[in-house]
Amino acid sequence: MIHVKDLKKQYNGITVLNIPELNVPEGQSFGLVGNNGAGKTTFFRLVLDLIRADKGEIQSAGTVVAGSEAWKANTGSYLDKGFLIDFLTPEEYFDFTGHIRGLSKGDIQEHLNLFSDFFAGEVIGRKKYIRDLSMGNQQKVGIASALMGKPSILVLDEPFNSLDPSTQIRLKNMLNKLKSQVKITMLISSHDLNHIAEVCDRVCILEKGKIVHDIETREDTLAVLESYFAVQ
Amino acid sequence: MIRWFITHSWKSALRSGVWQKNLLTNIVIGFFALILILYMLILGIFIDKILEELAPDRNPLNVFGSVMFYYFLTDLLMRYMFQSLSTLAVEPYLHLPIRRSTLVHYVTAKSFLHLFNFIPLLVFVPFILKVVVPEQGAIVGISYGLSLLLLVFNNNFLATYFKRQLTGQARIAAIAGGSVLLLITLDYFKLISLSTVSEWTFMKFIAYPVLVVLPLALLFFSYMLNVRYLQKNAYLEEMPETRGKGATETLSDIRYLSKLGLTGSFIGLELKLWLRNKRTKSILYMFPIFVLYGLFFYPNPVYNDKPGFLIFVGIFISGGMMLNYLNYAFGYESTYFDYLLTSRIDLKQYLRVKLIVAMLISTFCFIVTIPYVLFGVDILYINIATYLFNIGFLSFLLLFMATYNKKRMDLSKGAAFNYQGVGAANWLAVLPAFLLPVIMYLVFNFLLNKYAALMIIGLTGIAGLVFTPFFVKVIQEQLLEKRYVMAENFRKES
Question: CA of A150, closest CA in chain B: separation in Å?
Answer without folding.
Answer: 14
